[in-house]
Write a structure and sequence with these properties.
The complex is a heterodimer of chains A (137) and B (163).
Chain A: H1 2-20, H2 23-38, H3 47-55, H4 69-72, E1 80-81, E2 87-88, H5 103-118, H6 124-136
Antiparallel strand pairs in A: 1-2
Helix pairs in contact in A: 2-6, 3-6
Chain B: H1 2-27, H2 39-44, H3 59-66, H4 81-93, H5 123-128, H6 134-137
Helix pairs in contact in B: 3-4
Classes of the chains: A mainly alpha (137), B mainly alpha (163).
């Protein structure tokens, strides 16, 4: 009986840990580690800051793409469009559940798109904020 | 019973259409450019625009382009070295001047020393689009001449014929 209870407990724990550490959480945790290393006062990501980064019009980047919304659109749950006219799947996790699970892909597009919009790379905190916003969308 | 006959008829018609398309494909006509078959190339070169068939440019054009991806028409399309190598190998092997079939006609008017970077500036492309009315290029869903799919609905499957 005891063994049975122990086994049940163990499998429950195993389930709980797999539920916790989704690939997307790992991507986010990677940015959190980096953000803490960049700034000891880092106190967590903010969806509100992420939304501001996403929606604001920035200077510094290319004039025809001043904002993340230039390509990803105003509605995070709707398709966006590249300058060449190709559709981009929505960026909200609720509308695109497979997104942000491949760290290399996420990093590649942050590098490209932040340079495009801001004229510089985004910091780990900015990336985490933006992802946090999309996860709540 | 009639449904059965109808579905047989439809099936036969589809089969015939498929055979016609296949025949056309094998003829290597101007209108058919085999779509990108390498998944990595499809993925890396197909997110900002359609993954252009390799047969639309000569090998030397692809080689030049793949060496300058960090400034790709003003955008950063760079990938890691191993990825770039695999994509280059694929594009070069299927380029207009290396592919099987008669794709060289597509390069008519291109000098052997030139490595054109734009499909939309090849003499043949320009000629084929001479009669497209100016208003068609400025339609909202077109956005760019490079947005082949806006006008050629079957472009992703390799077909660019008159529509």
């Amino acid at each position: 009986m005891l063994t049975l209870i122990r086994m049940a407990l163990l499998s429950a724990m195993a389930l709980a840990t797999t539920a916790q550490a989704t690939p997307r959480d790992e991507v986010l945790a990677g940015y959190a580690t980096q953000a803490r290393a960049d700034d000891a006062a880092f106190a967590g990501f903010s969806a509100a800051r992420g939304e501001a980064l996403h929606r604001e019009r920035h200077s510094g980047g290319k004039p025809d793409s001043p904002s993340c919304t230039s390509c990803h659109g105003d509605n995070t749950r709707a398709a966006g469009r590249t300058p060449v006219g190709k559709a981009i799947d929505p960026v909200a996790v609720s509308a695109a559940p497979t997104r942000y699970t491949d760290a290399a892909k996420v990093e590649k597009w942050f590098r490209r798109n932040c340079r495009e919009v801001l004229g510089r790379e985004c910091s780990a905190r900015e990336k985490g904020d933006w992802l946090t916003y999309m996860i709540t969308q | 019973m009639t449904t059965l006959i109808r579905s047989i008829a439809v099936g036969a018609a589809l089969f015939a259409a498929g055979a016609v398309m296949l025949g056309r494909a094998q003829a290597g006509s101007d209108e058919y450019f085999p779509p990108v078959s390498d998944p990595l190339t499809r993925q890396e070169c197909g997110s900002c625009h359609m993954a252009f068939p390799a047969g639309l440019l000569p090998a030397r054009s692809w080689q030049k382009m793949m060496g300058e991806l960090d400034n790709h028409f003003g955008e950063d399309a760079s990938v890691d070295a191993a990825t770039a190598k695999q994509i280059t190998t694929y594009l070069v092997a299927h380029a207009a001047d290396t592919a099987r079939g008669d794709m060289r006609r597509w390069l008519r008017g291109v000098s052997a020393s030139a490595a054109p970077q734009r499909i939309t500036e090849l003499p043949k492309w320009v000629r084929e689009h001479r009669e497209v009315s100016p208003g068609d290029w400025t339609r909202k869903e077109v956005a760019s001449k490079a947005n082949c799919v806006a006008c050629h609905v079957d472009a992703e499957r390799g077909y660019f014929e008159d529509d």
